[in-house]
Design a protein that fits this description.
The complex is a heterodimer of chains A (about 375) and B (about 350). Chain A is an alpha+beta fold. Chain A folds into three domains: about 70 residues, no CATH class; about 140 residues, Butyryl-CoA Dehydrogenase, subunit A, domain 2, CATH 2.40.110.10; about 140 residues, Butyryl-CoA Dehydrogenase, subunit A, domain 3, CATH 1.20.140.10. Chain A is built from twelve helices and ten strands. A four-stranded mixed beta sheet of chain A has the order 1-4-5-8. A four-stranded antiparallel beta sheet of chain A has the order 2-3-7-6, with no helix packed on it. In chain A, β2 and β3 form a beta hairpin. In chain B, β4 and β5 form a beta hairpin. Classes of the chains: A alpha+beta (about 375), B alpha+beta (about 350). Chains A and B meet through α10, α11 and α12 of A and β9, α10 and α11 of B. The complex binds flavin-adenine dinucleotide (FAD). Flavin-adenine dinucleotide sits at the interface of chains A and B.
């Protein structure tokens, strides 16, 4: 067993770190947060500099970590423009790959994923948006809530009901996924204002009012949407875990900086133990979270995904990010609360909510384990 | 007597319902306006520390009730009331006391020297008959009068000759300004030569009121979560039906209820400084933990300001930094516990 990072991971990490140091200025991070403005110019630069190398998922993972370490809002904005693309990669036709996915991976287009609805996010099978087949197209009616890139994406992967569930217990059947263009007549995106954190990211409510979707935009087979989305989450949750590692590491950086500059000494040159303990606790949790995340990633990137370990990674890394941001603020007090740490504290909380709340991840872990479907 | 407190509690609740509840978001985004300040004054909330004929002794139980109930809807308003009364306990000039307690002018107190992580980058010094320099970390920096320490250790009351400078980032209490102030003033009073001691004493006397704000924050957030869990469904069940949600919120409420009972008990004690610290430290933790649970119970909606729960998450942390110094207050508590200096290495 080798815990050393591969050379290309190290190189990607270094590149992302240098990029973030250069472009993620506090001024930009602060204005994007204050004005709730998506940093499109920054995204363009990151695309030009090919900060995300889609040919190597390990490189993506460590890049997300480094970018979020510097600033979660900007880091996530830069790395979320291809959100949902794995659905096309795994289940899309050649047409969908060529017509939609490639342009996203080449950095020419932006996409998003529309699963959550106003009536429910955790319970994915409660989707009410309907897609009715009419001739050579589907007609979409309904809406989606909290959709990242909602106002800026060129198209979305959308989960909709194409046939009624066979029984109330089998509501996950009869769902399908489509590529829906934001330029289609009947499509509206309303920006959601006033988020606690990640305010640089763009979040919107989507409304579909008789939106025509060509039949070739159906992803994979009709009725398999729920399965596709769950498969997708088993990939994306690893990247959310990477966001968590980055955020936690960034908070730890601030704690270390504070400790080094601290006048908070017990004896000459020796920090008080409360600070030592806080640093040790955060650092240990980050190490543990990183090990679970890399293990989950290793399973996945070797085409042997392990949803239990993936959910453990997402749940634990998210909680680690929130824990680290809280500890960092508590230790740094007035210095911290008037620094960018206050933003990090607000940003971190989203990780326990999106792409499966911590509660949902725990349910997945224990349900699959009790059915002997994963884990160790 | 108990009946009077009951009436007071209802008065504050009615006041909150009438003046704050529907404006809570506006207060966060636009600040506390003059009409609200006047209404707070009319109710006597701004003059708990200054009632003519009664002197400066605060009825702690009444004050705690007011702060707790205001914090349930707007922690910013509760902090405004706290700072105003803290100001009144320190200021001496009759005309200023009248102006501030009537809401026609406002006063605040800078506590930064007492707080954790404080390292001044700016200086504020008395030069002859002027005070010059800057003071960071002024909560409610819009105030007409400011009480602050100067570098040479005196506690001074600035009456004019200061203005807002750089704004600080605001995690919490967004209804109040939080900035550095620039000072060039010859219009000030020295309130105490040994300012730090005076300031620390005044701050210590506010331990119960500060705890009451923490309790109010926790109550405000949990009541939203309980209501939400009754109506929101997931997987064909109300959220309240799921054990983790029901058990967490219930155990949060159990803790809160004990904190409230403890508060009522200690305000009746003749001496209660240790107990006040016990209460403050536990209330701070409870506010942070409970507001986090409340936000989480709301799922994605908890993350949006419209649902009025994320502010409690921010404010509980802000309270625990701007009105609590965990290290120092735990050291103080340890000293009580061990009967000698403890917990300093
Ligand atoms: C900023 C932001 C960006 C987002 N981006 C996207 C996006 O791009 N695409 C997208 O599709 N969605 C997105 N979401 C939605 C997000 O994934 C959902 O908010 C999340 O899945 C939770 O769903 P909900 O908000 O409906 O909460 P609910 O499902 O209503 O859950 C409320 C609470 O109940 C708990 N709960 C639910 N069921 C159970 C149970 N059985 N046992 C115990 N507890 C339970 C939950 O954990 C949560 O704490 C985003 C959300 C936000 C805030």
């Amino acid at each position: 067993m080798d815990f050393d990072e591969m050379d290309d991971m190290k190189e990607a990490r270094e590149r992302a770190r240098t990029f973030a140091e250069k472009y993620f200025t506090e001024e930009l991070a602060e204005s994007a947060d204050r004005d709730e403005k998506f940093p499109m110019d920054l995204v363009e630069i990151s695309r030009k500099e090919k900060i995300l190398d889609f040919s190597n998922p390990w490189k993506i993972l460590v890049s997300i970590e480094e970018l979020c370490r510097r600033d979660p809002g900007l880091g996530i904005s830069v790395t979320i423009t291809a959100f949902g693309s794995e659905n096309l990669m795994l289940f899309g036709s050649d047409y969908l790959k060529e017509h939609y996915m490639n342009s996203v991976l080449e950095g020419k287009k932006t996409m998003g994923l529309g699963v959550t609805e106003a009536g429910g996010g955790s319970d994915v099978s409660s989707v009410r948006t309907e897609a009715k087949k009419e001739g050579d197209h589907y007609v979409l009616n309904g809406g989606k809530m909290f959709i990242s890139n909602g106002q800026i994406a060129d198209f979305f992967v959308v989960l909709a009901r194409t046939s009624p569930p066979p029984s109330p217990e089998k509501r996950h059947r009869g769902l399908s996924t489509f590529v829906v263009e934001s330029s289609a007549p009947g499509f509206t995106a309303n920006k959601l204002h006033g988020k606690l954190g990640v305010r640089a990211t763009n979040t919107a409510e989507l409304i579909f009012d008789n939106v025509k979707v060509p039949e070739q935009n159906l992803i994979g087979e009709e009725g398999k949407g729920f399965y596709y989305i769950m498969t997708f989450f088993n990939i994306s949750r690893i990247y959310v875990a990477a966001q968590g590692l980055g955020i936690a590491q960034g908070a730890l950086d601030r704690m270390m900086e504070f400790a080094k500059n601290s006048t908070n000494l017990a004896n000459e040159g020796d920090l008080k133990e409360e600070i030592h303990f806080a640093i040790a606790e955060v650092a240990t949790r980050i190490e543990a979270a990183r090990n679970i995340t890399y293990k989950a990633a290793s399973y996945l990137f070797n085409f042997n995904p392990n949803p239990v370990v993936t959910s453990m990674a997402k749940y634990y890394a998210a909680e680690t990010a929130v824990f680290a941001a809280k500890k960092a603020l508590e230790i740094t007090g007035l210095t911290g609360i008037t620094s960018k740490l206050e933003r990090v504290y607000r940003d971190s909380k989203i990780l326990e909510i999106w792409e499966g709340t911590s509660e949902v991840e725990k349910l997945i872990i224990s349900r699959m384990m009790t059915k002997n479907q994963g884990g160790n | 007597m108990e009946e009077e407190y009951g009436i007071l509690e209802n008065t504050v609740r009615d006041f909150s319902a009438k003046f704050i509840e529907n404006n809570a978001l506006k207060i966060e985004n636009e600040g506390i306006n003059e009409t609200l300040i006047r209404s707070l004054a009319e109710q006597g909330f701004l003059s708990m520390a200054y009632q003519q004929g009664v002197g400066k002794a605060i009825d702690m139980k009444a004050f705690a009730l007011i702060l707790e109930n205001l914090a349930k809807t707007s922690p910013s308003v509760a902090v405004k009331v706290l700072l105003t009364n803290l100001f009144l306990t320190l200021a001496t000039e009759e005309s200023i006391l009248n102006e501030v307690s009537s809401g026609s002018k406002s006063g605040t107190v800078v506590l930064s020297e007492l707080l954790g992580g404080y390292s001044p980058k700016e200086r504020l010094a008395i030069n002859g008959n002027r005070i010059q320099g800057k003071k960071e970390f002024v909560v409610d920096s819009d105030a007409s009068f400011i009480i602050t320490l100067v570098d040479s250790g005196e506690l001074v009351l600035l009456k004019s000759g200061f203005s807002k400078d750089a704004k600080h980032k605001r995690l919490g209490f967004r209804g109040l300004d939080f900035s550095t102030i620039s000072v060039n003033s010859d219009n000030f009073d020295v309130i105490a030569k040994n300012g730090l001691v005076e300031l620390r004493n005044a701050y210590s006397r506010m331990a119960i009121p500060i705890a009451a704000i923490a309790i109010g924050i926790a109550e405000g957030s949990i009541s939203k979560a309980v209501e939400y869990a009754k109506v929101r469904m997931a997987f064909n069940h109300y959220l309240k039906d799921f054990q983790p949600i029901a058990f967490n919120l219930s155990s949060n409420l159990a803790e809160l209820s004990m904190l409230k009972q403890y508060l009522s008990y200690i305000v009746g004690l003749e001496k209660n400084s240790t107990e006040a610290l016990f209460l403050k430290t536990r209330s701070m933790e409870a506010a942070k933990e409970i507001s986090k649970n409340a936000l989480q119970t709301h799922g994605g909606y908890g993350y949006l300001e419209d649902f009025g729960v994320e502010k409690f998450y921010r404010d509980s942390m802000a309270l625990s930094i701007l009105f609590y110094n965990e290290e120092k207050e735990m050291e103080q508590l340890s000293e009580y516990v061990f009967d000698s200096k403890a917990g300093f290495v």
